[in-house]
């Protein structure tokens, strides 16, 4: 039996592959929407990775701080999962950061930014998602 996570990853791969098959079907709007979701998951993962590496901590340490497992952190950083709002809040606390998401038309920007006074003032993990 295939686990839900394996099924979802297989479905995401199939959708990603179908995006390049042209835009003339009734499913094209759904493919575009799904592509945007995949891009957001990837960019959220990249933002977590960027902030974690800026802090110089391992996935296992971030997992401990955020009450996760190391494989969950790895999957998140690889864009294999869409984090919930409570998880984003836990990650922000675990990385001594603020989390922001800005919407500007079809572009979305996500970032984990060092909290003021935390020693690392640079904006970390900012990623833009265009559509």
Description of the molecule:
- This protein has five helices and three strands; from the N terminus they run H-H-H-H-H-E-E-E.
- The protein has helices at 4-19, 28-55, 59-66, 70-77, 85-94; strands spanning 97-104, 107-114, 123-129.
- Helix 1 packs across helix 2 (28-55) and helix 3 (59-66) crosses helix 4.
- The N and C termini lie far apart (36 Å).
Blueprint (SSEs and pairs):
Layout: H1 4-19, H2 28-55, H3 59-66, H4 70-77, H5 85-94, E1 97-104, E2 107-114, E3 123-129
Antiparallel strand pairs: 1-2, 2-3
Order of helices and strands: HHHHHEEE
| Main β-sheet description | 3 strands, antiparallel
Gyration radius over CA? 16 Å
Strand proportion, as a percent range, falls in: 15-25%
Give the averaged pLDDT, no decimals.
Answer: 81
Which structural class do you get from the secondary structure elements? alpha+beta
The assembly state of the depicted protein chains is: single chain
Which residues form runs of ≥5 with pLDDT under 50?
120-131
Distance between the termini: 36 Å
Percent helix: 40-55%
Number of strands: 3
């Amino acid at each position: 039996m295939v686990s839900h996570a394996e099924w979802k990853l297989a479905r995401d791969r199939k959708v990603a592959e179908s995006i390049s098959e042209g835009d003339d079907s009734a499913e094209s709007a759904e493919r575009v929407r799904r592509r945007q979701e995949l891009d957001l998951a990837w960019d959220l993962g990249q933002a977590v990775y960027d902030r974690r590496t800026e802090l110089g901590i391992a996935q296992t340490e971030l997992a401990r701080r955020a009450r996760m497992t190391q494989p969950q952190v790895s999957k998140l950083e690889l864009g294999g999962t869409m984090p919930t709002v409570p998880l984003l809040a836990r990650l922000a606390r675990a990385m001594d950061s603020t989390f922001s998401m800005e919407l500007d038309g079809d572009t979305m920007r996500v970032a984990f930014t060092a909290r003021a006074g935390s020693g690392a003032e640079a904006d970390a993990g900012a990623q833009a998602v265009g559509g």
